[in-house]
Amino acid sequence: MGDLYKVPAIKLPSVDQLQELSRSLGIQCSVEELEDYREHMKGLTETYDRVSRLEGPSLPVKYPRTPGYRPCPQDNKYNAWYWRCDIKGAESGKLAGKTIAIKDSVAVAGVPMMNGSKILEGYVPEFDATIISRILDAGGRIIGKTNCEDLCLSGSSFTNVTGPILNPNDPTKTSGGSSAGSAVAVATGEADMAIGGDQGGSIRIPSCWCGLAGIKPTFGLVPYTGASSIETTIDHLGPIAKSVKDCALLLEVIAGFDEGRDPRQYPSIQVPEYSKLVTNDIAGKKIGLVKEGFEGCEPDVVSQVQKAALGLRRLGAEVEEMSLPMHSEGVHIWTLITLEGADKCMIQGNGMGYQNKGFYPFSLQEAYARGIKARPQDLSETVKMMILYTGYVSQNYQNRFYAMGQNQNIMLTKAYNKALETYDVLVMPTLPFKASKLPTSKDTRQDRLNLALKMAKNTAPFDITGHPALTVNVGFSQILPIGMMIIGRHFDDVTVLQVGHAAEIAKFLS
Length: 510
Hints:
This protein has about 500 residues and is of the alpha/beta class. It has 16 helices and 13 strands.
């Protein structure tokens, strides 16, 4: 009797529905054709129904937890936290005694997840992202989810629906996005380390403007399984901490192959013990200062980064200026890939996209689908602009420019790889200017849109090429931090970390 009450996965369409669809697609089928097609669809519908009843894979939830609570404003001075919790992992491990904050684009089972946006409000995942299990297995203690930008589509820190995330150095300034809350939680000492996400600089931007270390690892080194995607070819997760050593420690815990659940990865990934390999021994390392990366930067940013880079000579490194003209095109190539790719993956693909092998979290996709349909007017201005522009481009130019961007990215990647045959790492300012003012009621919509992404000229290119890129603090100007970015060869994250650690040491020697 139970089978009589089963609801089919897909309801067979009527001839009228097929006729309307055929008109909208320009196929113009006859009624006789549509009846034949509908008859054949009965078998397809049964197949869809059969597969929908098979047991699917799941991500493990290993450690007990309670849902936690949303912090009140007086306990959330800089609006860094979306949700507070206390999830204790294993009794021992590499992260024993360490408190970890998690960007709210990463799923933690039983803890609300909003990804900075009203469209996901009320969603509670039933699974732990892979990196969450790894952190807990290593003895880490997860103490909350941190606020991020609306669907992570901003490099500033004012589009989160709960309000702006304030910079601890100057609360009138942006703390950077989109992983703003993660950086602020570490900068204020509320967490020892944090997880950020990076599709255009979103680990490195807030790390720079909050005076921290933050690494976007090589693409595919850290599994993205269980996190909300912007665009599958540029998604990265990585550590934010007060020191490069702590970044290295967290990276070695979360990195590694994820059993085929993440299409960004290869089975051959090797994960060394980064924390033991990070020393200040960089004698003989060749460091190239990318001339184009310094162009258009504030004078104090240029001078601080040049001073820090040249200071590495005291530790035995060879430092020289070099030119890489293609770098100036990187952010423009990134724009073509990211805008159109984000619309297809995040909006039309409900936060996960299509055409990739791996694990697809149904509940997160369904939450996206419901939210986008029910509350599109509640999306941030940055996201609305992206949807409108890419909708226009897709309707009138199909995927021509996305394809052009991906093709040009091949050339950009080759240009960096060629430079890295000569140099062990490349160096440039992380961001071209110090933290900017948060917008006020006096700012126009155009002002706000300009503030959202104008800082990413140096960070964004390495999201599409996948090279590891680390920011380290090299000083302050007018009480605001300045960061230096270090870029290395694919899967040579250890050299990037070594040079970053040496830069921290050199700063104290100067």
